[in-house]
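During the no-cost extension, the postdoctoral fellow (Dr. R.K.) reprocessed legacy sequence entries with the updated structure-token encoder. One reprocessed record is reproduced below for audit purposes.
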Amino acid sequence: MKRYYWNEYNFTGTKPELAKHFGVSKCMTYVNAVKRVPRHVYNCMDAKEQAEYEKKWERAKPAYRLYLDEEQARYIDLNKTEYEAISLPIVQEDIGGPFKLIYKNRILPENFTGDRRDELSVASAMKKYQTEAIRFAEQVMLATGYFNSRMPSEKPHSEINYTSLTLSYSNGIKFTFVSERSCGGIDNCYLQLITLDGRQIYNGCFRKYSSVTAILQVAEGNPECMNADWYLPY
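Re-encoded structure tokens follow.
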């Protein structure tokens, strides 16, 4: 790691070494992906450059900090390697609300084939369905803003009832997937309902959308979510 000299502390060493002697706590926070440019620089950009800049400005990226006092008024920035090398209490910083995270436009397969060696082909097909449904549900939550930037992807409570599948998350979101039995497994798989604390925020009973983007157009999004993107660590 790079070594620095801090005149204030008359100390030379790496940031983790500084933390060992003078650090109080550390935190992971989120900042804008780019710094604000001066107005005269912005005015010199053409329309395309301004649009690209604004899009980058709206995005959020993780940032790491080492606090050097109890009031958290003095801190230095860290990279991820330095942050993980420091053994100090972790504090939670208020970042002003949840961010809408970037999502992938996944497509939910319409059918799944069971294990031919298994007498219960529906059961083995439903296990495959469950794996894809969890991936699909995560992207739907990212698209609609129900995962905030301080909450990593979690493993939901999953319940299979023959050809139906329910996924429940700690934030109150519940996904209901349904399907029909076929000769080799299951068919006509789709997301039927999304509820939030029992309140319906998506109904796919009449229009069976199979992509995240299509569901996003009709589902009720999180009104408290700010428009910012951040890539979850997979």
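DSSP finds six helices and eleven strands in the chain. Residues 229-234 have pLDDT under 50 and may be disordered. The remaining legacy entries will be reprocessed before the final report is submitted.
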